[in-house]
Structures are given as structure tokens and as C-alpha cells.
# Entry
Amino acid sequence: MFVVSNFLMAIAKILDIALTLYMWIIIGRAVISWVSPDPYNPIVRFLNSVTEPILSPLRRRLPISLGGLDFSPIIVILVIIFVQSFLVRSLMQLAGRMG
# Structure
């Protein structure tokens, strides 16, 4: 049973690291959007290509009358925090009880 416990713990840790990394990428994109970045810069292109598939559908569902501010990064970060608090911790606790 310890093999399954170790597997679940590894999945939880990898998921936690991936979610944290993606949260920092979202934050980086938001900070860069405050200035007028060069759209041909490789870093800007990477940030846009990685975050746009998540942010774009969310922007379409948000009301436009929010004063022109883009709240989609904040919502994605809150969802990431929720998933880390709920799913990752649940996996870790389940792995702890199995092992």
C-alpha cells in the first residue's frame, strides 16, 4: 500500500509545483501588461501563448462594464489557490493515511 501512497504524494507535489509555476506565469503576464510590451519579444510571446487559452474564455464570460480592467488573471489565481488548498491537500492527506 505504501507504493500507492508514495504515488499519490508525488502526484500531489507535482501538481502543487505546476500550479504555483502557472500562477507566477499569470502574475508575470499581468505585470507585463501594465506597460506596452513588444509583441515580438520571445518572453511576451511565451507568456501570451501559455496564458491566453485560460484567460480568453474567462474574459468572454466576464461583464464588460468593469471599468476596462481585466479581472481574469485574479480569478484564475483564486481558482489555482482553491485547487491547491482543496485538491492538493486532499491528495496529500489521503497519501498520508494510506502510508
User: Anything to note?
Assistant: The radius of gyration is 17 Å. The longest helix spans residues 2-33. The chain is about 80% helix and 0% strand.
